[in-house]
Amino acid sequence: MKKSFLFFLAFGMCFLSYAQEPNHESFIVRQLDSNTERYNKIAREIWENPELGYLEFTSSQILIDELKSAGFEVETGVAGLPTSFVATYDRGGPVIGFLAEYDALPGLSQDAVPFRMELVEGGNGHGCGHNLFGTAVVASGAALKEWIDENNIKATIKIFGTPAEEGGAGKAFMVREGLFEGVDAVINWHPSDRNAANASTCTAVMQGYFKFRGQSAHAAGSPERGRSALDGVEAMNMMVNMMREHVDQESRIHYVITNGGLAANVVPDYAVVEYMVRHPDVKEVKDIWQRVIKASEGAAMGTGTAVEVELVSGIYGLLPNETLAKTMHKNLSAVGGVEYDDEEIEFAKKIQETLNMSKVPSLTVAKEVQPYKLTHFPASTDVGDVSYVTPTVGLGTATWVPGTAAHSWQATAADGMSIGYKGMMVAAKTMALTGKDLILNPLLIKEAKKEFDERLDGYVYEPLIGDIAPPLDFRKAQNKVK
Asked: Could you name the domain of life of the organism this protein comes from (predicted)?
């Protein structure tokens, strides 16, 4: 009888202990749900003030003010980047980092309507959803901070405000500065047309300007006295285009002439072409970049001009971490995708009519979570540099109508209305829950670091940007605002 009593007493105490155990997931989700409208307004405010790379003074300040209000200590202007910041909430324990982006793109001004309508002719627009990106990260950090306080948990959150993802390599400069030292794991996300939390690789990039200088002259009266800088650009482009046959098929080479002269009857003494070189293997990117430089030198020699090479950006591809990705996939599956209401369905259908696709995806894709897999993304992100110095994980959520391409007016439109906001909050919940898992499970961090070391396999990270100064003015000429 005594043994039975003791058994039931022990069982009752265990049950009571279990019943009193905090429901961490519910607390975090409730925190985010209760502040949804607040974060929607922040995302819209940044959307209404689209700022290009290294010019995001209003956008970064909006996020900084929100983080200070939430109780974070914020250091601004880090790594020589005026619009960068690091926000810290330090309660000891594991250090979990989050990446926030907030730069817009040139030429993608668009109202939040399902047809083409520029707000500013040739103006900026959030066609990659970074207004949502930065806001969701701040929301995640604030929710985690409240959860840490509520449960008296030892943990530290660092939110990195990273400017100029669209070509300026802001994160590479922050990595070079050593800002990610001591961070146990980094979490981020990106807007998309579907929900997925895959471990992914992508392409490394080198980017820069080739500035040709020649001799001006009257194009008809004394052409023999001129040396055309534009000829230098065109000769370089021709050689690089011939080179395409003799590079690995996974390579990507893009260029645009940003200055080709001012008048047809003047031999241009100055011309500029911008190049980007991509490949999944960072060593291959370095090799191709050197071949492009040699093409520019040959073009200058052949046209009697001179060329100056200005490196603007160099970023790594992503180093995947399946330990973290599978954890994030579990949380995304629990949160679920995006449910459209009737107005959103109507908006989405009109958007899909403009997509120029032979077969558009079903709108139900927005509420589905894609199966987990290891993938390769052929584009690039400066998150890659972060992933080479600490275990890093990311996800995408359906902020855009299924079938929408990034860097399009259709993406800009959705990023400024409820479809984008709903996807943003799916991301915020998934990131916060993943951060919670890392904080509560030290073995998960240990396993992620083990995988990180195995994938590096002794490779020592060296910034592709070398010792160049941040290109703070590289978007100023394109900046068209209200």
From this structure: Bacteria
